[in-house]
Each structure stands twice: as C-alpha cells, then as structure tokens.
Amino acid sequence: MLSTQIHKFDIFGHDGETVGDVAYRRIRSDIVLGRLKPLQKLKLEVLKETYSAGISTLREILSKLAMEELVTAEGQRGFEVAPISEAGLRDIADLRLLLETHALRRSMAAGDLEWRGNVVAAHYKLAAVESDLIGGGQSAVEQWVRYDWGFHHATISACNAPALMQTHSSVFDRYMRYHMLVLSFRGEIAAEEHERMRDLVVAGDADAAVELLVFHVQSGVEHVLATGRIPAS
C-alpha cells in the first residue's frame, strides 16, 4: 500500500527504495490513472520491458495489487487489470464514505492551527487547478485528481489513525480510478463543494462537513455513471 509520505503518483525512485518498489508504484499508478485499462492482460514479458523489473518481482507486485483489488489473478492464464462496473463504483464509494466520514470527525476534533493551515493550503492548490479547468485551461484531469486527493487527505490528516489512513488511501485510489477512466470533471459545482468543505472544516462544523462530504461523493458517483462509460455489471 502506498505510503502517505511519498506522492501517490510519484514514479521516481527514493533513497532506500528497490527497483521493485518503483515498479510497484508505477504499475499501480498506471492502473489508477487509467493508462492500463480494465480487463487488459498484464503479460509479464511486456511488463518486464516497460517497468524494468524481473519476472519474479513482477509476480510479487501483481499478487500484491490483486490483494488491493486493482488486479485479478486468472490462475494459469496470468493476471489482468481489475474490471469496473456500476455496482463496483457504488460499493467502493460507500467504503470511502465509511472511512472518510469517521476520519474527518476524528480529525476535526483533534486538529490544531497547523492542521487548519494545511487544509487551507491544500484547497488553494486544488482551487487553482479547478479554476483553470473551468476556464478552459490546459490543466489535466490527472493533475486535478492529485490535488483533489491532497485536499481530502489534508482534511483527515489529524485523525491520528495510521491504519485508517492507509486503508483510506487505497480505497480512495480505487474510487478515483473511475474518474480517470471517464476523464470528466464536474466543474463549478465540484469546486464550490470543495470551497464549502474547506470553510466548514476550518470552522469546526463537523456535522455539516460530514453531510457535505456524503453529498459530494454521491454526486461524483452519479456524474461518472451519467457518462455512460461504466458497464452496469
């Protein structure tokens, strides 16, 4: 599972990391960001050339990603990227909300001035990208996904529950994978929700913040499904 100390979609090596660590993060990012498509066969020889990792290392990586439900194991036929479906999106959105609403309440109860400053700073970056997208600029949806994660992560970062944060990080990626596969941004509505979320979090109104978060995520689900690009089953 990705460390929250390393950027979620950082593909470069860091001190102390192995070739396998970097390959794992690259393959995982390519699945989450939609570069590797649902049901795409993950042939070891092709992956070896693309990600510069040995066959045994790649088997370990794919087995690990299968445990995260980003990859499926096909027995003797090898591995493929996990499928998507309407039911799958609704299920992962429910799990995200279960984790994030709990973490948000804990974070708001324990958060200090520095935490509130981090929330505001994370929103500033997200708002800049959203403003560019709304104005027809060249910001990529992939960039928006990174800052969207950064903002939501900041709001729950004071929850003091490392296991919860790690699980939420993995679930969030599986949820955002659907957004990357349809490449559709909700525009001003999403931006306004993020702004209101920032204000509620900073003001300490936990009930209203949780209510808005639930609405925000559920609206995102309906937006993705409205594109018609997610199979019903």
Secondary structure: elements and pairs:
Elements: H1 19-32, E1 41-42, H2 44-51, H3 55-67, E2 71-73, E3 79-81, H4 86-110, H5 113-134, H6 141-156, H7 162-182, H8 188-203, H9 206-226
Helix pairs in contact: 1-3, 4-7, 4-9, 5-6, 5-8, 6-7, 8-9
Describe the structure.
There is one protein chain. The chain is mainly alpha-helical and 233 residues long. The chain folds into two domains: 19-81, Arc Repressor Mutant, subunit A (Orthogonal Bundle); 86-226, GntR ligand-binding domain-like (Four Helix Bundle (Hemerythrin (Met), subunit A), Up-down Bundle). The protein is built from nine helices and three strands; from the N terminus they run αβααββαααααα. The chain has helices at 19-32, 44-51, 55-67, 86-110, 113-134, 141-156, 162-182, 188-203, 206-226, and strands at 41-42, 71-73, 79-81. The chain has a three-stranded antiparallel sheet with strand order 1-3-2. A hairpin with a 5-residue loop joins strand 2 (71-73) and strand 3 (79-81). Helix 5 packs antiparallel against helix 8. The radius of gyration is 18 Å and the shape is globular. Residues 1-6 have low confidence and may be disordered.
